């Protein structure tokens, strides 16, 4: 696991539901075929109403037209990120697009579990209202050991809530890697 | 130590005498549910992680109910059905309900109840956020992702944080103009879409226990819309009669201790509640129908795990009997059994199907259909700037198809009354 995550921030509001993260019509693509997988990157966050995408200005697409990858690697959002359906395609799509971490004020349970157990993106919680202090396009740096996010564009540093119980799963890279490390499961062919 | 019904069920599943809210525990899973959208990636992860030739932990406990993208020519969606079929054959899964055969059932949460998979006191996980629906049967039901489901497939276990419970008591006698949908939309308006995150919603009171199982399922179904891990209603004679008619599996009944600890307790008098809607674009955007009546709409949609059960159609038919709809009105029975009920149930000497056809409704084959938009050829999908009144569960931007559309969530009574006028209409105007 990396010790530093650095990149451009993409800022969203509250209650970003999984239909906004990956609209249901796209859930038909394979999650293992490399060519089809790219489409999840292409359509990541494509359901966010344009005015609310890339705050504070808005009308900034997470993935630009014709591209499969995002220029943004850290998503900043307010409360209840990932509410709605159980589709694991949602954190998967964010990962495929190139997101490494999300920093939100709170998460919906299933989305949070999926991020951690699937090892897709690191879901950080923070008590800070970062959506007021970070603009889309700002360069930010997350220090995983220190649990901080530094806005390199403004020079300000903010604290993140420690990952707590789930740190070991995040560090292992997901529930299966963790379970193997802790001898919680066996393979039939090993 | 005093425990809630949810703590007691999770204690049983964790082989413990007591589990406390906030504790992470490993649970033995009684049933794993999956469908055509999340089944294929779940099976992929299972094969990848457990290796070639791996067998699921218990084929009897895996229930596969394709329901999301069934009547579509979308080749990727059809491929997903093929993948389900292949895995079910490889693993000899007895509870696979194949599309295009007599075994096909329809919407998974309703079919689980009909087929006797909802057993009081048990633990169900499913790759669908509305798995909480089954909590109406005094059991624990919760949605999970593909990775967690694949882990269960191989091990029969999953870790979960024991939820705190929020209690919602409804006193009084349900008026004829109210349905369970109005109650849950009222709760959502009061606590918000993250008002119960990581918690269990426990429903109780005279009004709740007077409801038939299908109505109780509408309440627990939308627990997830408040962020809830689960929704639950204690077993009573109505539950037992329903369960016994569908399965001979033994079951255990749990009740919350009188001194169990709750996160919060909320009390409602149903005689003081009114028909309500959730305005666009959030299930907690509460308004009484009276306060928005007259709002022009372009479509009415009655269907889904939330609002496509036989009780829902019985109520809609009461309103639509002898009337003509003014706008496109789509009737989507959740399951094959519900669809059969449209032919066997009557109101004033006519079958429900006759009433819907005579009033000008379109009736679809059972599936999730446009509740979640789906492929472009999905029945009832919203287009352009459609304004839809819908008995479904979510009205997020783009949820029913078009990103420009607006969706008002409502009870089947309100959706039917609004279909007649082409405007949001309080069902009391037609009762």
Quick structural overview:
The complex is a heterodimer of chains A (190) and B (431). Chain A is of the alpha/beta class.
Computed structural class of chain B = alpha/beta
- Which oligomerization state do the chains in this entry correspond to? heterodimer
* Approximate helicity band of chain A: 25-40%
Query: What is the fold named in CATH at topology level of chain A?
Result: Aconitase, domain 4
Number of domains of chain A: 1
- At the fourth level of CATH, the homologous superfamily of the largest domain in chain B is Aconitase, domain 3
Tell me the layout of helices and strands:
The complex is a heterodimer of chains A (190) and B (431).
Chain A: E1 4-11, H1 18-21, H2 34-42, E2 72-77, H3 89-97, E3 101-104, H4 109-118, E4 122-125, H5 130-133, E5 139-143, E6 148-151, E7 156-159, H6 167-172, H7 175-181
Parallel strand pairs in A: 1-2, 2-3, 3-4
Antiparallel strand pairs in A: 1-5, 5-6, 6-7
Helix pairs in contact in A: 2-3
Chain B: H1 5-13, E1 24-28, E2 31-34, H2 39-50, E3 62-64, H3 75-90, H4 108-114, E4 123-126, E5 140-143, H5 146-155, E6 157-161, E7 164-171, H6 180-191, E8 199-204, H7 206-209, H8 213-221, E9 230-233, H9 237-244, E10 264-269, E11 276-278, E12 286-288, H10 289-292, E13 299-303, H11 304-307, H12 310-320, E14 328-332, H13 336-344, E15 346-347, E16 350-351, H14 352-359, E17 362-363, E18 387-390, E19 406-409, H15 412-421
Helix pairs in contact in B: 2-5, 6-8, 12-14, 12-15
């Amino acid at each position: 696991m990396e010790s530093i995550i650095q990149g451009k921030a993409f800022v969203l509001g509250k209650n970003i539901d999984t239909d906004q993260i990956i609209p249901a019509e796209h859930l038909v693509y394979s999650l293992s075929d490399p060519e089809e997988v790219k489409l999840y990157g292409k359509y990541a966050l494509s359901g966010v109403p344009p005015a609310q995408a890339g705050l504070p200005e808005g009308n900034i697409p997470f993935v630009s037209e014709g591209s499969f990858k995002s220029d943004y690697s850290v998503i900043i959002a307010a409360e209840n990120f990932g509410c709605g359906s159980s589709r694991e395609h949602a954190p998967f799509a964010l990962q495929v697009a190139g997101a490494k971490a999300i920093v939100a004020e709170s998460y919906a349970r299933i989305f949070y579990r999926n991020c951690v157990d699937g090892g897709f993106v690191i879901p950080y919680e923070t008590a800070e209202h970062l959506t007021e202090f970070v603009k889309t396009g700002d360069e930010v740096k997350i220090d995983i050991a220190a649990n901080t996010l530094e806005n390199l564009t403004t020079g300000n540093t903010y604290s993140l809530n420690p990952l707590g119980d789930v740190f070991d799963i995040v560090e292992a890279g997901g529930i299966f890697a963790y379970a193997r490390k802790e001898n919680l499961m066996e393979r039939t062919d090993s | 130590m005093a425990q809630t019904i949810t703590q007691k069920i999770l204690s049983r599943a964790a082989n413990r005498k007591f589990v406390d809210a906030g504790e992470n525990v490993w649970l033995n899973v009684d049933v794993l549910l999956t469908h055509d959208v999340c089944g294929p990636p779940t099976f992929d992860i299972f094969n990848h992680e457990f290796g070639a030739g791996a067998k699921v932990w218990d084929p009897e406990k895996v229930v596969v109910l394709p329901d999301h993208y069934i009547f579509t020519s979308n080749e990727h969606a059809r491929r997903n059905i093929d993948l389900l079929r292949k895995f079910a054959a490889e693993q000899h899964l007895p509870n696979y309900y194949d599309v295009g055969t007599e075994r096909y059932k329809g919407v998974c949460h309703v079919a689980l109840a009909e087929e006797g998979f909802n057993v009081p006191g048990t633990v169900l996980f499913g790759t669908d956020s509305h798995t909480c629906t089954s909590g109406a049967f005094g059991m624990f039901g919760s949605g999970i992702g593909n990775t967690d489901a694949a882990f269960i497939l191989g091990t029969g276990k999953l870790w979960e944080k024991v939820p705190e419970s929020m209690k919602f008591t409804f006193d009084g006698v349900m008026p004829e103009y109210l349905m369970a949908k109005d109650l849950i939309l009222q709760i959502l308006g009061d606590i918000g879409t993250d008002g119960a995150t990581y918690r269990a919603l426990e429903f109780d009171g005279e009004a709740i226990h007077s409801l038939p199982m299908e109505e109780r399922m509408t309440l627990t179904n939308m627990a997830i819309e408040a962020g809830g891990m689960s929704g639950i209603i204690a077993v009573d004679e109505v539950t037992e009669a329903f369960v016994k008619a569908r399965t001979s599996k033994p079951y255990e009944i749990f009740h919350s201790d009188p001194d169990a600890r709750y996160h919060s307790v909320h009390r409602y008098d149903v005689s003081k509640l009114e028909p309500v809607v959730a305005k666009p674009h959030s299930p907690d955007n509460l308004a009484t129908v009276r306060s928005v009546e007259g709002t022009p709409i372009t479509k009415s949609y009655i269907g889904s795990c939330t609002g496509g059960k036989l009780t829902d159609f019985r109520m809609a038919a009461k309103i639509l009997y002898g009337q003509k709809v003014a706008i496109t009105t789509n009737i989507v029975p959740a399951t094959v059994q519900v669809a059969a009920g449209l032919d066997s149930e009557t109101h004033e000497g006519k079958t429900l199907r006759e009433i819907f056809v005579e009033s000008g409704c379109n009736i679809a084959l059972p599936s999730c259909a446009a509740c979640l938009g789906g492929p472009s050829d999905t029945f009832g999908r919203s287009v352009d700037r459609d304004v839809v009144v819908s008995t479904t569960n979510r009205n997020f931007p783009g949820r029913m198809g078009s990103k420009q559309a607006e969706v008002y969530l409502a009870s089947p009574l309100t959706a039917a009354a609004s279909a007649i006028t082409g405007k949001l209409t309080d069902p009391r105007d037609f009762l």
